[in-house]
Design a protein that fits this description.
The chain is built from two helices and two strands. With 120 residues, the chain is mainly alpha-helical. α1 packs antiparallel against α2.
Length: 120
């Protein structure tokens, strides 16, 4: 790596940063997708319950009794919010992937250009 120009070394550092950011985005996206699946599963479970069934909902560190309608509404809102966050992360992922590929191509061109003999 010592034989690379400072510009290419800087680009490699930026490439690593972009790769780390992509990993973070993908990790967050996976967490949100899992939360969506859990909320939808909960909605499926309560859809079979009678309207007057006793239901509890976690509010912070407290479990509170709520009507089925309220629980279902809260789950729907949660799914919508999470899906919005997922779409936002997907846009970020696409943008970062584009930057990654562009920078990768620049580095490759710089390295290949340096390795080629100069025209005389």
């Amino acid at each position: 790596m010592n034989n690379l120009s400072p510009k290419v070394q800087n680009q490699l550092g930026m490439l690593q940063q972009i790769q780390q950011q992509l990993q973070t985005i993908l990790s967050q996206k996976a967490q949100y997708e899992m939360a969506v699946r859990e909320a939808k599963r909960a909605q499926e479970e309560i859809s079979d319950a009678a309207e007057d069934s006793v239901m509890f909902m976690s509010v912070g560190t407290v479990m509170m009794q709520k009507k089925k309608e309220v629980v279902n509404t809260k789950l729907t809102e949660k799914v919508e919010t999470l899906e919005l966050r997922i779409r936002s992360l997907e846009k970020q992922e696409k943008m970062m992937q584009g930057k990654f590929e562009q920078l990768q191509a620049q580095i490759k061109a710089a390295i290949e250009g340096k390795g080629a003999p100069a025209a005389t």
